[in-house]
Design goal:
The protein is of the alpha+beta class. 35% of the residues lie in helices and 28% in strands. Strands 1-2-3-4-5-7-6 form a 7-stranded mixed beta sheet, with helices on both faces. Helix 1 packs across helix 3. The radius of gyration is 15 Å and the shape is globular. The mean pLDDT is 91.
Length: 155
């Protein structure tokens, strides 16, 4: 597995990342309906091309299997291909973000307890909660900060 910062965000890559996003969301965001997923999906390519730093994990064949987007020290997105879940890839990506991109904050859907638990395991702690997501949807968000001394090498 290789972790790569992506500068050129060509349509083939965006399509591959969109596929990872959709399969991951369908497996983990059980609180969203198919229609809601399809509606959100329309905005994902723009988010992928617009996020400040896009980092991709590639398999041995150079195919993307996971990605994260970060901006101004905030983790904006982190998605892992279904077949790669549970292999430590999310941990590797997040540690890369903490160590190389200054990630110290994130927001996670409260209704995705696996993700919230993962971030807690990685040293993030809740500091705020909202009843609605950033688009005004009825999906509570938990805002988290990296606890002092929780860098990648202190785990």
């Amino acid at each position: 597995m290789r972790i790569v910062r992506v500068e050129e965000r060509h349509p083939i890559l965006i399509h591959a990342l969109l596929d990872i996003w959709e399969r991951s969301v369908r497996a983990t965001h059980l609180f969203l309906s198919d229609g809601e997923i399809e509606s959100i999906k329309e905005y994902v390519p723009r988010a992928l091309t617009g996020v400040e730093a896009l980092t991709v994990a590639e398999d041995e064949g150079g195919r993307p299997v996971a990605f994260m987007g970060t901006e101004n020290g905030t983790l904006e997105m982190l998605f892992i291909a279904l077949e790669e879940r549970g292999k430590g890839l999310g941990k590797r990506l997040l540690r890369y973000g903490i160590d190389h991109l200054g990630v110290k904050k994130l927001a996670v859907n409260e209704q995705n307890p696996q993700a919230k638990g993962f971030y807690e395991h990685m040293g993030f702690r809740a500091y705020k909660r909202t009843e609605r997501d950033e688009q005004g949807g009825p999906y509570p968000l938990v805002y988290m900060r990296l606890r002092e001394g929780s860098g990648a090498f202190s785990q």
